Amino acid sequence: MSEVNRQILLAARPSGFPSASDFQMVSSPVPDPGEEQVLVQVIYLSVDPYMRGRMSEAKSYAAPVNIGDVMTGGGVSRVIKSRHPRFAEGDIVEGITGWQEYAVLNGRGLRKIDPSFAPLSSALGVLGMPGLTAYFGLLDICKPKAGETVVVSGAAGAVGSLAGQIAKIQGCRAVGIAGTDDKVAWLTGELGFDAAFNYKTVSSYRSKLAELCPQGIDCYFDNVGGSITDAVMALINQSARIAICGQISQYNLDKPEMGPRLLGQLIVKRARIEGFLVMDYAARFKEGLTQMAAWLREGKLIYREQFTEGIESAPQAFLGLLQGANTGKQLVRVSPE
Amino acid sequence: MSEVNRQILLAARPSGFPSASDFQMVSSPVPDPGEEQVLVQVIYLSVDPYMRGRMSEAKSYAAPVNIGDVMTGGGVSRVIKSRHPRFAEGDIVEGITGWQEYAVLNGRGLRKIDPSFAPLSSALGVLGMPGLTAYFGLLDICKPKAGETVVVSGAAGAVGSLAGQIAKIQGCRAVGIAGTDDKVAWLTGELGFDAAFNYKTVSSYRSKLAELCPQGIDCYFDNVGGSITDAVMALINQSARIAICGQISQYNLDKPEMGPRLLGQLIVKRARIEGFLVMDYAARFKEGLTQMAAWLREGKLIYREQFTEGIESAPQAFLGLLQGANTGKQLVRVSPE
Fold it and tell me: What is the chain B residue with the closest CA to A273?
C-alpha cells in the first residue's frame, strides 16, 4: 500500500474551456479514519460532465469546489480500514470520494456493491448514476409510448447510450446524435438504435433529423443543448415531451449563448420541457437499479467503458469527456481491483 | 334588420406590426341558411391575441386565414333563422362567426347561452374561452399550492386577470406584470393581486420581480414571453411550473427573436415549461365553466370588459389589443342585445 495519497486539486476557475493547468496534483499522507468513519482506496473514479459545473462559481444546485480543494467526484472503492459499524475491511463501496487515491468517509451516501453481481465498474455506469439518469429521465419525464420516435443527443455517452436502448425496449424508434462516425456505427450497429448521425459532418441538423424522423419527434432526451436542440425543437410533434438531462454544449462558454426563442413552439405543439436531476429520484433508486440489472441480464442493454490509468490521468480524462473523446462511460482506473 | 352583411376581410399579410390597411370592409347580401344551418346576427365579437397568428402563413396549430377571406373570430350571436333541429329563432349562441355582422353556421362548436344566467358578453370572457384558458392553464399546468408565489404576465388582459385571481383563490401570492399604471392599480386595488408592476416604467424587470417575490417564483403563467419571461426564469424556485399561454411580445416580429438560452436553468431548478391550448381541454369545459360560474357568484372573480362600436371598429380594437390598450376583455359591440 502506498504511503501517500495523490490528490487532484482545483487550481483555478476556468473561463471557457478548462485546461490541464486548472488542476494540480499534490501528495499528502494517507489519512486515518476517525470514529464512525472508513478509509477507502479508490479503484475507479467516475468522470462526468456535471463536474464542469462544480469548477464554476455560478449558482447551481450544488456548491462549487473551492480553489485548492480536492476536485469532487464519485467512484468505486475498497474499504481498507473501518471504524464504521456498517462497513468492514474489504467491502466494495460506491460513493463520493473526490479525485484522489484514498479518502476518509463518514458512510453517508455510501452504498455497498456485491462484487459477484456485475463488474465493479458497472456501479458507475449502467448500474449506477448514469443508468438511473437514463432510466428516470426517459421513463419518468419523456414517458415514451410504443411506436413513438425518441431522439437522444449525446447519444454515445454513458447516459445517452442507455436512454436510447431503453427507448428501444419501450418499442420506440430511437434516433441518436453523436460526434464521430465510430460512435454512430456503435449506436446503430451494436446498440440497436434505428438511426443515428454525426452532427459534425452533416450540413443541416434539421434536414438530417427530418430524414431520420419521418413521423416527427415525440420525445427528446437532451444531453447537449444549443443548436442541436434548436433543430430538434423545430420537428417536435404535438404533445412532445422533452427531458433536459444536460447541456454540455453550453458548459464551457464564456458567457451565456443566445438562441432562437422556443416557447412559442411549445404552444403550437402543446409540448413540455422539463429539467431533472437524478438525485431527486433517490427514493426510487432501488426500482431503477433492479430494472436496469434485469435488462442487463436479459441482454437488452449493452454498455461500453473507457479507462485512463492512474489518478494523475483524471484531468485528461475529464477534458477528453468535455470534447466528446469518450464512447460510453469514461472512468479512471485509480488502483487495481 | 339590415339587408347587407358588413364583413372585415384579411386584405394583406402583415410583416411585423399589423395596420388598418391589412383589413378591408366589404358589404355583401345577408345569406340564407341551408338545411341543418342557422343564420345568426353577431352581437359581440371577441378580440383575441391568437388572431395575429391566423393572419400569418407560418405553420401553427390552425390554418391561416386566406387573403380575401373573412377574418376569423368568435362571438355571441342571436339565431335569426334556423333550419337546424338543435337551434330555434331567438336562441343566443356562442361560437366562431368571423368578423362580420351575419353568419351562416352549421351548428358545430356552437353552444347555447342562457341569457338569464349572466351578461351575454361574459360568454366571451370569464365564462368563456379566456376563463377556461386561465382555469386549465393555471390549475392543470401550474398546479399551484397554497403559499406559493404565482407570477402572471399580461396580467391585466382577459386571461391574465383571471389567472391571477384563481391563484389567489388557491391561497397563493399573486404578482402581476402589466403595461400601464392604471392596470397595475386595477390588479392590486380591485382584483386582489398581492403585487404588480408596470414593466414599461421599471429599470430592471428582474430587480422588481425579486423585490415583489421575496420567496422566489413557483409558478409562472406566461402570456407575453421575451425579456419579461427571461427575468422570471432567473428567479424560479426548485420544481417551478411554467405555463406558456401566449407570447404576445413575439407575434409582431419580422423575424424570430434571439434570447438567452434557458434550458440549463431548467436542470438547475428541476423545472417544467409547458405550452397549452384551451381547445385541448374541450372534454372538461363543463367542469371549468361550472367552477368559474360558482366563483363568480361567490364574488371571488372580478372582470372588466371594454367595447368598441360596430363591426367597422374590429380592426382598431384588434390593433389596440396588440398594443396593450385594453384592460380586461376587449369586445366589439356589433349589434344591440
Answer: B273
When pLDDT is averaged across residues A295-301 and rounded to a whole number, the result is: 97
Name the grid cell of B85. 333541429
B336 to chain A, any CB pair closer than 8 A? The answer is no
Interface contact A258-B259, CB threshold 8 A: yes
Q: How far is B115 from chain A (nearest CA, A)?
A: 33
B327: cell is 384592460
Q: How far is CA A74 from the centre of its chain?
A: 11
Nearest Cα neighbor of A193 from A227, A151, A157 is A151
Q: Find chain B residues with C-beta within 8 A of A271's C-beta.
A: 274-275
Interface check for B264 against chain A (CB to CB < 8 A): the answer is yes
What are A34-87's pLDDT values in tens digits? 999 999 999 999 999 999 999 999 888 899 999 999 999 999 999 999 999 999
Angle between helix axes A285-297 and A158-169 (nearest 10 degrees) is 70
Average confidence score pLDDT of chain B: 96
ipTM of the complex: 0.95
Residue with cell string 469532487 = A72
pLDDT of residue A291 exceeding 70, the answer is yes
**pTM of the full structure:** 0.95
pLDDT of amino acid A255: 83
Q: Domains, chain B, ranges and CATH?
A: 4-122+304-333 (3.90.180.10), 129-279 (3.40.50.720)
CB B147 within 8 A of CB B172: yes
Is B275's CB within 8 Å of A268's CB? yes
Dig out the grid coordinates for A85 from the structure.
Answer: 459499524
What three-state secondary structure class fits B50?
A: helix
pLDDT band at A3 (very low <50, low <70, confident <90, very high): confident
| CA-wise closest residue to A127 among A310, A297, A336 | A297
User: E strands along B47-130, which residues?
Assistant: 74-82, 92-96, 102-105, 111-113
Instruction: Pick the closest to residue B202 from B212, B193, B194, B192 (CA basis).
Output: B212
Please provide residue A251's backbone torsions phi and psi, each rounded to the nearest 5 degrees: -75, -25
CA distance A234 to B157: 29
What chain B residue is nearest to A227 in terms of C-alpha separation? B261
Nearest to A261 among B257, B269, B274 (CB): B257
Listed by number, the residues of chain A in 217-246 with a beta carbon closer than 8 Å to a beta carbon of chain B are: 222, 225-226, 229, 238, 244-246
CA distance A103 to A108: 13
Q: B112-118: which pairs have CB atoms within 8 A and are 24 or more residues apart?
A: B112/B87, B113/B76, B117/B293, B118/B293, B118/B296
d(CA A311, CA A295): 32
Crossing angle (nearest 10°) for helices A129-136 and A285-297: 100
Best A267, A273, A274, A276 residue to mutate vs chain B (most B CBs within 10 Å) = A267
DSSP annotation string for B158-186:
HHHHHHHHHHHHTT-EEEEEESSHHHHHH
